[in-house]
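In this supplementary section we document a worked example of the pipeline. Step one takes a protein sequence of length 694 as its only input; no multiple sequence alignment statistics are reported here. Step two produces a three-dimensional model, which step three serialises into structure tokens for compact storage. The input and output of this example are shown verbatim.
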Amino acid sequence: ISLIVTFIGVNDLGADTKGGGKSSAAADKVVEEIRAKGGKAVANYDSVEDGEKLIQTALDSFGRIGVILRDRSFARTSDLDWDLIQRVHLRGSFLVTRAAWNHMKNQKFGRIIMTTSAAGIYGNFGQANYSAAKLGLLGLANTLAIEGRKYNVYCNTIAPVAGSRLTETVMPPDVVAALKAEYVAPLVLWLCHEDCQENGGLFEVGAGWIGKLRWERTKGHTVRQKNKAMSPEAVRDHWDKICDFTAATRPSGIQESLQSIMTVLSQVESDEVGANPTASAAATGGSALAVGQKVSTSLFTFNHTQCILYALGVGMSTKDPDHLRFLYENHPDFGCLPTFGVIASQAVLMEGGLSSVPGLGIDFTQGDSVLKLNWFLLFCSGTLRSEATVADVLDKGSGAVLLLDVNTYNGDELLCFNQFSVFVVGAGGFGGKRTSDRVKVGFPPNLRAKQCLFPPRSQAALYRLSGDWNPLHIDPSFAAMGGFKQPILHGLCSFGFAARHVLKQFAGNDPSRFKAIKARFAKPVLPGQSLQTEMWKEGNRVHLQCKVKETDVVVLAGAYVDLHGESDAPLENLPQGGGLQSELVFAEIGRRIESLGSELVRKVNAVFGWEITKDGKTAAQWTIDLKSGSGSLHRGAGGGKADVTFTVSDQDFMEVVQGKLNPQKAFFSGKLKIRGNIMLSQKLEVILKDYAKL
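The serialised model returned by step three reads:
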């Protein structure tokens, strides 16, 4: 690996070894050396407590922030008070990093190197304040590694031994000469390189030797029993077992750290106290704690661009004229594919919300998923809110299955429901239940109709632009960590392909016919493989499975799509109307009244009549009764007597619904005519916008 350093910001306050004084000489010397080697560098003489000034110097000179190095010791601890050491080593690093953090996040790249010390890792006589500050840096670095990961901002920590102004006062000259900084710099340069994927690591380095450190924990021993007091004598009697590092574990995160405690709680209550509560990453206590936990709420803002991008991501093409309604925003029937609902809710997974749930340690590079979706989306922009709950954790022996229920809302109205299932390899065997009544079950295939598509090799690269940024689908090295020879296609991309097949074969590409979909992701799809969907229809349910044509391996199994019945379908399947676009709106209003009628009656308390015209003639009549019972929709003059009647053309009606035409302007221009209680027109928004969702 050859690294060429071109832009470097050098910060040194120039203090002496006791923390006093100030000089530009140290920083200037380093800058001169870098420039002599053909690099570009700029000096900064501010204290690290002026982090904003330090970062601004780098931005003014180079335009971006790439790496932060904190390798500046001020003085021997015995000569400084506690506050000064904390300010320089811990607070100074915090201020400099905070000043650079958002720049790194926005540019989707950053490398932060914290400098701790053996005194912080192991402790050292007479250096209590220095040791505390240096170990504090390690805690800061570990958290930054977690928070920065999704932005490609990685943070690692080094504990170097090198000759410096500080060590030359306590070491013989020949030793200082042997511990050159040149023997530390290569490690730092590699950790800063964009190809280096190390994150959250701790390294000791010096004299050309590099070693990585990690935590290790004994398997421990539980020293209390149910309904009995815990005594110091019990601790004493089992001290050897508590401190026995035979078969030690190596927790890699706070979830694993807490796991043993959660397991003990479960074992004590069930009188099954054992010696190794850390044996499984998803032990019974942890899974019990996780069930019912709410994952942090996520927001998803979208417009027609995201809808089109998703359609392209699941294989829509302008080569097929039927696809244009999903690819062109000005198409008269433009709309989202029904399965776009998964995009809004997947932010719960991609934004790391699951990592905050107690009792879970999940590796998303491996496993299968199950998804059940209820979705009816006719509008193509807005902000949706998704709330997730852990529904269950199942023990599958070789792994654990996590069920996650996600409800997505538009305002206060439930818009769609997703159920994700994540298979966590190696996390089973904790004695938990194997099945759950909350899992949606499919049916064995009895397949007839077949469709086949050939996703291009770059399909995963396109699909990930819809928001699924998991590097498993683009990064060969990350895929290798998951046991794959190459990046694999997103399971939800295969899911979208299969859903398109059903939409075309059995619903005439009409997204309003879609009601629900369920599928289990059985096997991965590799770039270049073709997908074949096999389908058969029973009533309003279409059963399907998806195979890789070349290998005949099933990749989507136990799947089905529920469709709205023909009588519920808009436009071309209704007995009247002459191809009116407004039919779609009234069909959706009818569905909303069925589920939310009582609430609408309470809010509106009126009967509305509609006369829809086309070419100057009445083409359809509707009555919306939101005054009695739980509300109703009638074609023609059914329901109660209209309190107000609207007459409008089919085209103008759609423009009002879509927000392109203001109702008041339509009224004053003569496009919208009103008879009866004109003040009730103010409640149009409740009916057309808040509940029709168009």
